[in-house]
Amino acid sequence: MKIGINTFLTDEGIGPTRLGPALEERGFESLFLAEHSHIPARRASAYPGGGDLPRVYYRTLDPFVALAAAAAVTERLVLGTGVTLLIQRDLIHTAKEVAALDLISRGRAVFGAGVGWNREEMADHGTDPRTRGALLDEQLEALIAIWTEDLAEYHGRFVEFDPMYAWPKPVQRPHPPIFIGGGEAAAKRAVRHGVGWIPNGAPDATAARAQLALFDGVDLPVAVTPAAPDPAILDVYAEGGVERVTFFLPTVAESDSLRTLDELAPLIDRYRS
Fold first, then answer.
1. Cα(114)–Cα(81) distance, rounded to whole angstroms?
2. Whole-Å CA distances, 1 to 12, 38, 263
3. At 37, which CATH number?
4. Which domain holds residue 244?
5. Nearest CA to 164 among 177, 156, 174, 155?
6. Per the structure, how many domains does the chain have?
7. Which tens digits make up the pLDDT trace of 110-137?
8. With contact defined as beta carbons under 8 Å apart, do 270 and 29 qualify?
9. Overall pTM > 0.90
10. 253-270 pLDDT, tens per residue?
């Protein structure tokens, strides 16, 4: 089982050009970054974690810019989004950003996508929260068309474009790995599209077993983000065939970030594939 890190990179914590090499030096397999374009000042949507919305949500760097910076100073680190809020993004630009990241990293990009929870944030992008799932379904199909076809077109209810050329194409074939982030609905969407699933980590071993039961009999990759650094839980994931888990790295001063990585690194060898 591969071990990575997921975090919110902001203007107030460790930067991507320092974090990337630090992860490689300690043997971490991957870096996954969260995304929020902005936080509306008037918000009715409750934070899923409960309580006040953490400061990092207001200050996230663009994940593709940050991952490109990390790509430039690393050689092996897998670079992923956990998750891209695709329903708030221009599809064609996003297809180019992912393909460009895959190209400059020489095939190390992983694309995580989700529907998000902040309805006011979606609305500012012109996205109707009531149809965001159906929109994401079409966007995923259209992305794959752009990545894999020299002359791509798509005609759906929400996504519509006539034949077009778009380069670069991703280095990975047929395209970078895709993972859908979220709970049971996301797991079902991943199965429908034949892609991976990114669930949030379970609070204990029993819950982890129940979580993995959603993918019983389905041969698709699972990447838990974030997982608690608890061997009792991690053992369940490893035995259940989870491809990757990532540990959450708080957004703190650089010295504290590096100290946390040192504390987490011993688990890498225990679960190394």
1. 10
2. 31, 34, 18
3. 3.20.20.30
4. 2-271
5. 155
6. 1
7. 999 999 999 999 999 999 999 999 999 9
8. no
9. yes
10. 999 999 999 999 999 999
